[in-house]
Every structure is written in structure tokens, then in C-alpha cells.
């Protein structure tokens, strides 16, 4: 019987089979950010241990660093300062403010070629699964597991079950990978992927550019999955060529040949398989307090009384928190804030998509709109293309790279009771600040809302 892409990578990294169905696997790339990494490094040091392979560990600051325009490399904060000192003590690569590698770890790792197809990568962050868009096996781990990986370059893990989601047909030109992800989560549920490693396949997936695939895999954890993957192809090779940490010259050609061999076998049988029709995907937005609670822009907000047993209370709680009424259109809902950023949608193609919508227009009165590039590299490229000027001319605030308002760990928050449309990946209660009401959407849909002053169909602008 054939093997899945996941199984091929997993099997290549198994050091030893352990009792009880566990494996000890080799981890190629431990990734660190300022919220978890510094404490792990400090614990390692206090135990008298050293980082096993410092040259394979990469750290950045993203969660707690300010994205205030004009910040300097002296950006303060206890997490930031501890990240600097611990990274220096451990002699690992550290991307500080102003360096090309600074930014959201799940944006910088792929764009720099730190994570490569067929490699394993872990980080103390659930959205590490983003890197699966390159054909890597990447997943989030806890702080104690990070400590173990730093000390040994290994990790004890139980092999998950295998799921494939085949996306047939093609997406409409006005629809992005973000909508495809929300559509899948809505259709299958936010718990469908629990216990699974998910491979996304089919013509609609292969048609996505690499940054779209990264977005799709980013939200596999919102499906409940441990990780998401897309098999590498020629697009992957082109994306990685020239990356600062990717192989060079003949070594790159040799690596690319191996990457292209990483495909699920034709005769493989997955533990679960689903088909999604891409031509049924439309511009979408969430209405509730988890990513599954999403609807097409032309649909009405669900009625709790029309739902199945047990669902009514949760839906009503979400409506109450969000300040919405059942059976009313989501289109036309007034918004106060727009956030274009996060590890889901802060790459160059995302900013281009949003800029195309706001070009020649202006943010509506009463709306505060932010653009937070995902990395220093994205920021510089966008500025060279003139995207910063497009956004600022339209009334957006152009900020420095970081996680910012996605998780609000750096104090950048939506005020209580105010409504945000955000390109991030989570709309949980209080995610963007206590009492904040978050609607998830694509960059184009978020940009359209900024111009209109309310949630609107980007196709009508």
C-alpha cells in the first residue's frame, strides 16, 4: 500500500519507535518567538544544558513587539529584551527590529527558506502549521516540548491519522485562499480535523500561489488539525529559490529534485477524505465567535431556533457577544476597525490584493484602518512597489512588522464593544482585546469594509 506525503516525511524522521504507539522523531528546525522562546532558553540555561544545534534554531520577535510607526531597534518590553539576551547567550540566529528576518515567525520562516519541503519544524505556536504550505511537516508544541527539542533536536510524538481534502474546480477571481479555508471549516466543522494531519489537494489547491497555500495551511488548526500540508511542486521551487537560508547553486538543484518527489502515492488510502467544490466558494465573513461561524456575504445571520439540538445556546451566546440579530444580512454591518495583518494574511500578495481595492478611494469616516506587514522583507517589498503610498493616501495607518492586533499581546487592541473586520485567523471572545467583536475576512473584503464603513461585498466596489 502507498504512503501519504505526511507519512513519507514522518518516516524519514523517525529515530526510534517507542512503546505505546509513540515515535521519537528528529526536528530539523526549532523556531522561536518572543512569547515562548525566551523562557525555554532560560530554563535550558538554568539546568546547565546547551542548545543541541544552535545553527538550526531561529528566533524572532513578533507577538509582543510594538508595531508603532517609526519604532527603533530599541523597541522596549520585557519579552523583547529577554528574547535578545537569551538568544545572544545561546548563540542562535535572532532577527531583531529592522533586520530582514524580523516579523511574524510563520511569515519569515517560509520566505527566508528556513523551513523547506520535507523538513520538520516546530514552534511554541499553533499556527506553525502554516509552513505546511511548502510541503513541510510543521506543527505547534508546548513550552516543555520546545525545551526538549532545543536540548536534543528530537521530540516524542504519536503519529496522527491522515485526512485529505480535495478541492475540485477553480475559485472565482474575487475569492481567495482565506475564503476557501473558511468555507472548508464551515462545511466540515471546527472539530473535523482533531487527531488528523490534513493534506490539501486538487486543482483549486494547486492553482493557488505559495502564499495562498500558506494561508490555507495556516487555518488547518482552525479545522482542529495538528498540521496541514500541500505537496510541493514547481511553484514551491521557484518560491524558495534565492531564499537567504535555502540551498544554493548545485545543492539547490539537488534539493529541488527531492522536493518534487514528495507526493502522496496514487494508491494511498487516507483515514478520512472529503471533497470540496471550489466553485461554490464566495466572499465570506464570520459572524460569530469561532471560525466555523462563517457565512457568504450574501447570506443572513443564522437563527438559533433553526439549528440542531444543542447548537441553539452556543449560537445565541455568539450573537449576544457580537451584538448581532438573527435573520438579518451580514452585509451592511457597521465596523469601527480594520486590521490587515497576521500570519494568515500579511504577505506581499495579501497587501497587493487589499491595495487594489483601496486604490483611488478613502477610508470611511469613523473607521480606523491598519496595515501591518508580516515581516521586514514584506514591508520593504511593499514600499518599493508603492503599496505603502496607496494605503496611506487612502487613510490607512502603515505600521511596522509584527503580530499586532491579531492576538493583542503587545497592547494593540480593539476597544471594548467596538467591531473589527480582521484578516487574522481567530475571532474568539476577547481575542483582539476585552469586549472586542471580530469578523474574519480576506484582505480584499477587509479593505472593502474600510472604504464602505461596513461589511460589504468586494465585488460591488
**And the CATH topology of the largest domain?**
Aconitase, domain 3
Distance between the termini: 51 Å
> Kindly state the mean pLDDT as a whole number?
97
What is the correct CATH architecture of the largest domain?
2-Layer Sandwich
Quick one: CATH superfamily of the largest domain? Aconitase, domain 3
Flag low-confidence runs. none
Number of domains: 2
Number of strands: 19
Q: What is the level 1 CATH name of the largest domain? A: Alpha Beta
SSE class? alpha/beta
Spatial sequence of strands, sheet with the most strands:
5-4-3-6-7
Number of helices: 15
Percent of residues in helices: 25-40%
Q: Describe the sheet with the most strands.
A: 5 strands, parallel
Strand content bin: 15-25%
Shape: globular
State the assembly state of the protein chains.
single chain
Tell me the Rg in angstroms. Answer: 21 Å
List strands and helices in order, with pairings.
Layout: H1 5-13, E1 14-18, E2 22-26, E3 29-32, H2 37-46, E4 58-60, H3 78-90, E5 93-95, H4 105-111, E6 120-123, E7 137-140, H5 143-152, E8 154-158, E9 161-168, H6 177-188, E10 196-201, H7 203-206, H8 210-218, E11 227-229, H9 234-240, H10 249-259, E12 272-277, E13 284-286, E14 294-296, H11 312-322, E15 337-340, H12 348-358, E16 368-371, H13 376-385, H14 387-393, E17 397-398, E18 419-422, E19 437-440, H15 443-452
Parallel strand pairs: 3-4, 3-6, 4-5, 6-7, 9-10, 9-12, 10-11, 15-16, 15-18, 16-17, 18-19
Antiparallel strand pairs: 1-2, 2-8, 13-14
Helix pairs in contact: 2-3, 2-5, 6-8, 12-15
Amino acid at each position: 500500500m502507498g504512503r501519504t506525503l505526511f507519512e513519507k516525511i514522518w518516516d524519514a524522521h523517525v529515530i526510534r519507535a517507542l512503546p505505546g504507539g509513540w515515535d521519537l522523531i528528529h526536528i530539523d528546525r526549532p523556531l522561536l518567538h518572543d512569547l515562548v522562546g525566551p523562557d525555554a532558553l532560560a530554563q535550558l540555561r538554568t539546568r546547565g544544558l546547551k542548545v543541541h544545534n544552535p545553527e538550526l534554531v531561529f528566533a524572532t520577535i513578533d507577538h509582543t513587539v510594538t508595531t508603532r510607526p517609526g519604532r527603533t531597534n530599541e523597541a522596549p518590553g520585557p519579552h523583547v529584551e529577554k528574547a535578545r539576551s537569551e538568544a545572544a547567550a545561546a548563540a542562535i540566529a535572532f532577527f531583531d527590529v529592522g533586520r530582514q528576518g524580523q516579523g511574524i515567525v510563520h511569515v519569515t520562516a517560509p520566505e527566508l527558506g528556513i523551513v523547506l519541503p520535507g523538513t520538520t519544524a516546530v514552534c511554541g505556536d499553533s499556527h506553525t502549521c502554516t509552513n505546511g504550505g511548502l510541503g513541510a511537516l510543521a506543527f505547534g508544541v508546548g513550552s516543555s516540548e520546545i525545551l526538549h527539542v532545543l536540548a536534543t533536536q528530537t521530540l516524542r510524538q504519536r503519529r496522527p491519522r491522515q485526512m485529505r481534502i480535495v478541492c475540485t474546480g477553480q475559485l472565482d477571481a474575487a475569492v481567495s485562499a482565506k475564503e476557501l479555508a473558511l468555507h472548508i471549516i464551515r462545511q466540515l466543522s471546527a472539530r473535523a480535523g482533531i487527531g488528523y494531519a490534513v493534506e490539501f489537494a486538487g486543482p483549486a489547491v494547486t492553482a493557488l500561489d505559495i502564499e495562498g497555500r500558506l494561508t490555507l495551511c495556516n487555518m488547518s488548526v482552525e479545522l482542529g488539525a495538528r498540521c496541514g500540508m500541500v505537496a510541493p511542486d514547481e511553484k514551491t521551487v521557484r518560491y524558495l529559490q534565492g531564499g537567504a537560508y535555502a540551498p544554493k547553486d548545485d545543492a539547490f538543484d539537488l534539493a529541488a529534485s527531492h522536493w518534487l518527489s514528495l507526493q502522496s502515492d496514487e494508491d494511498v488510502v487516507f483515514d478520512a477524505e472529503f471533497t470540496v467544490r471550489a466553485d461554490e466558494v464566495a466572499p465570506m465573513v464570520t459572524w460569530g465567535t469561532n471560525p466555523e461561524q462563517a457565512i457568504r456575504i450574501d447570506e443572513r445571520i443564522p437563527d438559533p431556533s433553526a439549528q440542531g439540538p444543542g447548537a441553539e445556546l452556543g449560537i445565541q451566546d455568539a450573537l449576544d457577544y457580537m451584538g448581532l440579530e438573527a435573520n438579518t444580512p451580514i452585509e451592511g454591518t457597521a465596523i469601527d476597525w480594520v486590521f490587515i495583518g497576521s500570519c494568515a494574511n500579511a504577505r506581499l500578495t495579501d497587501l497587493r490584493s487589499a491595495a487594489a481595492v483601496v486604490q483611488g478611494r478613502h477610508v470611511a469616516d469613523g473607521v480606523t484602518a491598519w496595515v501591518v506587514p508580516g515581516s521586514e522583507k514584506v514591508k520593504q517589498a511593499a514600499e518599493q512597489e508603492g503599496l505603502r503610498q496607496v494605503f496611506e493616501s487612502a487613510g490607512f495607518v502603515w505600521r511596522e512588522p509584527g503580530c499586532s492586533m491579531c492576538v493583542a499581546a503587545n497592547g494593540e487592541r480593539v476597544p471594548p464593544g467596538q467591531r473589527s473586520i480582521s484578516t487574522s485567523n481567530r475571532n474568539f471572545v476577547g481575542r483582539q482585546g476585552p469586549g472586542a467583536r471580530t469578523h474574519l475576512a480576506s484582505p480584499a473584503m477587509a479593505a472593502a469594509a474600510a472604504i464602505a464603513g461596513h461589511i460589504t461585498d468586494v465585488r460591488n466596489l
